[in-house]
Structure formats: C-alpha cells, structure tokens
Amino acid sequence: MKFFSSHATMAKQVILLQLLYFFHSIVASLDVGHNVTYLKSRDKLTEADQLMHLGNKLKLNEKETIVNNLLMKAKHGELHRGLIHPVSFLPSSIFLKAKPFIEKSEVFQIIKRMPKGALLRSHIIGMVSTAFLMDLTYMDNLFICFTNYSKAIRFKFAINPPNSTVECGHWDLLNDLRLTWDYNDILWLNAKIESSFTLIVNKLKNLDVNAVWKNFQSICATLNGFLGYRPLLEKYLYQVFEECINDKILHLEFSGTLPETYELDGKLYSELEIVGIYQTVAKLFQSKNPDFSVKFIYAPNRFVNGSTFDQYLKTVKSLHKYNPDFMSGFDLVGQEDLGVDLLEFADKLSQLKYVNFYFQAGETNWNGMTDLNLFDAVLLGAKRIGHGYGITKHPILMDFIQKNKIAIEVNPISNQIFNLVKDLRNHPAVELFARDYPVVITNDVPNLWGANGLSYDFYEAFMAFTSYSDDIRVLKQLGINSILYSAMSKSQKSRAMDLFNKQWYLFIDEMINSYIK
Asked: Who is most buried in 204, 239, 285, 449, counting CB within 10 A?
C-alpha cells in the first residue's frame, strides 16, 4: 500500500507554494500607516483559516440562518461567561459533575432537538438510561450476590438459587430482599445496585486510567449476567432503539461481545442465535418505526490468545455468512494499553477480505507504543477507527485517513471519563475539526456516566472542539458524515440522507416556530 504518489507530492508542493505566495502578498501589502489595509489582510488570513474548518463548505438558506443566529447567540454567551469565569465553562469540567448544568444550557437544548443522523460506535452493554436498568431489576427470578472479596454485585436469573462459586458463595432473590429488609436497608441496596451500573463520581476521584478501566470491567461483569437473560435482553434492546429515536438518531451501528445469553431453565444460546435475537427485536421495532435502521458489529475482547482468536474468526465468518447485511463488521475491544496489539493478529485478520473492520485504535496518551495500533488499523483496511485519540501524533496517518476517507469516531465524554483528557478544549479532535478531517461523533458506553443518545457528546464537541465562529454547519456536517461513513450500502445511505434532510428542515421550521413566533 503506497501512502503517497508522486502526483500527491507534487500537488502538496503546489499548494504550499500557493500558500507561501498568499502570505507573502499579505505581508507585502501591509502599510503600517494604514490600519484598514492591515485589517483587510488580517481578515483574508482568518477567512482562509475558517474555510478549512469542518462544515464551512456548507451553505445555509434563509431559515437555517435564522436558527443559526439563535444557536450562535447562545454559544457566544457561554463562551463569554467562560472567559470571565473559567470554571463555569462546562467542557473543562468532568462530565459527571457538569451534566446537570449542561442540561440547562440553551445550546444543549437546541442540539437535543436537532437530528443527529447515525450513531456509529456504541457498545450494547451501556446504551440505556440507569433509570430503565433499575426498573428491570424488579423482574421476577432475579438473584443477587455480593462477591466474596470485592463485594461487587453479580446477577443471575434462575428458578432456584444458582450454585455457589469461588466468586459468589451465596445468592439471594432480589425481590425477597426488597420485601423483607427495612426501609433504610432497601435504600442502601438500591443505591448499591445503581452504583454498580455506573462510573459515579467517587469511583473516579483521583484514579489513573488503569484504575478507571478496572472499575469499568467490574461494571461489565455485573451487566453481563444481568443482560444475558433473554427476556430482559429483548426489553433492553428495544429500549436502546427507543432512546435512539428519542434523541433524533435514524441509524444505529452497535457493537457487542456476544456474551452468554440464557433462559430461566439454563438453556444457552449460540452466537448465531444471539444475533438472531438482536435481529428479531430490531424487526419488531422497525415495524413501528420504519425509518429507523440497525446494524451490528461483532467486537469481542482483545485480551485473548491465538486459539481464542481463531474461534473469533470462525464466529465472524458464520455471522457474516448468515447475516451479511445486519452483521456489518468486526472490532476488538478492551483497554489497549494493557491488551494484545492488533499486530499480534494482523496475519489472520488480513485473510478476512470480505469483512469490514472498525478497529478501536489509538485510545491512549502514549506515543510510539500503544498508538501503533493505528498503523495496523490503517494497513488492515479499517473503514473507521474507534477513538483514534493518538492520531494527531502521526502526520503521515493523518494525511492517509483524509485522502482515503477513513473516519475517526470521536468519543469526547468517554475520553474524558477514561482520563485521557481533563479539559475537552485540549482534545486532539480540535485539530481534526479545524482541518476538516473525516470525523463522526459517537458515545461509546454512555449509560456508565449517566448519559444517553448523542446530544451530550454533540454538545461537548460543539463547545470544546470548534472555534468561536464555527456554527450550525458543524453540527449539520457531523450528521451528514455519520451517514457517509456508516456501514450502510449506497442505496441505504441515499435513503438515510433523504430522511436526514427531511428531519433537518423539519427541525429548522420547528425552531423558528417556537423561538421566533
């Protein structure tokens, strides 16, 4: 694979000469005695810079301009308040603390009403509101255990108490505890359960990235036994789609490890059958919401040896054979810093010519170490790169992803929660936005920090990654990008783009009716 051709190099040299000439002409035209000349030259330079930004190629019609003025008034108000009182600028605070204030933001309220297009990286294990999860804990036949060492919560649906294990020595029927314990103990129990579903503030205080990942893995262990019960899984997945619709999302590509899925009597489902359950729920939802579409990305854990990885390959081949449209691709998930690198499996992955890759890569602050997964993701032909946090440290890769339209799936809140960045204005995506790289905004595992949908991540990106002058065109372009870089076929993308445009102009009309009239 060649990264640059002689034509590409020549084109770059021409562009560089043009820029040098442009800057020279500006400097040559300066007349220190005439401020007007200087200001005109300054305007030319800032305009040239602005034109490079994400979304600036779009043109707004009259109605869009009206709504844009409303949005920019709200944005500028927040920016000015942040300039005077820096601690009030919400993207500079950890989301877990900023969330209630974000929800009061006028910018957020506008974004919440706006169509988002497609959601392209969301893990099934953390996609619905905590309140809905808590409601599910009242289902019959749910047993609970507090693990022997860490006192973490584990769940299992069964007719009789599950057998004791090294981790869980004793199981109780949860509904019995709620009937027999006193009021204060029940309050404590419910709070304990709720905290086991989320990365709450006191869990993250002063923790390094490895410790946050350890907490995350504990939550996954709690949720796997809970979501593995087939009747609950179906309710859960239907709610996932419902919450997407509620946040103006028209297409979803969710990923999952296909963990153990079971019935009350202990029956286990195969990976192929689990994906069949996903499809059944999707079709049921689409029967009532025909404009909504869904695809699945098989994304098992990267902490495996060669023989387990070989089993992954068998699974992905089987899934693709029987579900070629629904099963859209393959990924490996888990903490990159401590996990197995893509290079370890590159030879085997290169044989999957007919399966699209959407690799999580570069989710790290290290340079020249874990981030080398980015090179493997590109060389293996990834269609999108999840997180891609370290991409700006590698200019040759940046040129390549832009030339070959490999989208970076930016996860603002997730990157902050997992301690890659504190103030989101310092996120590397700022450069990607400024240079109009192929980017989409997505949400990773939003339930773990009390979010859902895309509105929160869109807000953080719009306020932290864009300049003072960047406007509603950024948000519209993100929606367009999400469809362009999705796993949908050409005809599916065309249909989705028509739907998005219809939703967009309906949003514009509704905004004018509610704000102006």
From this structure: 449
Report which of 417, 369, 409, 368 is spatially closest to residue 389, judged by C-alpha positions.
409
Average pLDDT, the chain: 92
- Those residues whose C-beta lies under 8 Å from the C-beta of residue 98, and which sit 6 or more positions away, are 90, 91
pLDDT at position 5 is 45
CA–CA gap between residue 333 and residue 222 (Å, rounded): 18
The confidence band for 199, taking pLDDT boundaries of 50, 70 and 90, is confident
Domains and CATH numbers, the chain: 90-129+230-506 (3.20.20.140), 132-213 (no CATH)
**Angle at CA of residue 143, ends 140 and 145, nearest 5°:** 155
Burial state string for 60-69 with b = 16 or more CB within 10 A and e = fewer than 16: eeeebeebbe
414: tokens are 């997730």
Q: Which of 138, 122, 363, 319 is nearest to 235 (CA)?
A: 138
- Residues 249, 118 contacting (CB under 8 angstroms): yes
What number is the average pLDDT over the span 340-345? Answer: 95
Amino acid, single-letter form, for residue 381:
G
Q: How many Å apart are CA 226 and CA 220, to the nearest integer?
A: 10
3-class SS of residue 496: helix
The closest of 473, 411, 470 to 439, measured between CA atoms, is 411
167 among known catalytic residues: no
Cα four-point dihedral sign 246, 289, 223, 424: negative
Q: Which amino acid is at 251?
A: H
Q: CA separation (Å) from 226 to 56, 125, 234, 413? A: 46, 10, 12, 25
The answer to whether residues 120 and 255 touch, using CB atoms and an 8 Å cutoff, is: no
Query: With a threshold of 0.90, does the pTM exceed it?
Result: yes
- Asked if residues 286 and 292 have their Cβ atoms less than 8 Å apart, the reply is yes
pLDDT band at 6 (very low <50, low <70, confident <90, very high): very low
What stretches of 362-470 show up as alpha helix (H) in DSSP? Answer: 373-379, 395-404, 412-417, 429-434, 455-464
**Percentage, residues of the chain above pLDDT 90:** 84
Q: Could you say which of 363, 394, 427, 460 is catalytic?
A: 363
Q: Quick check: is 363 catalytic?
A: yes
User: What is the dihedral sign for C-alpha 341, 346, 348, 353?
Assistant: positive
- Look at residue 409 and tell me whether its pLDDT is greater than 60: yes
Residue 123 sits at the vertex; the CA angle it makes with 120 and 124, to the nearest 5 degrees, is 115
**Segment 21-48 mean pLDDT:** 73
- Among candidate residues 251, 387, 394, 427, the one labeled active-site is 387
- Calpha distance 424→94 (Å, rounded): 9
Q: How far apart are CA 332 and CA 386, in angstroms?
A: 10
Residues 95 and 97: their CA atoms lie apart, in Å, by 5
Q: Which residues pair with 249 in a beta bridge?
A: 117
Residue 1 half-sphere exposure toward CB, CA atoms < 13 A: 10
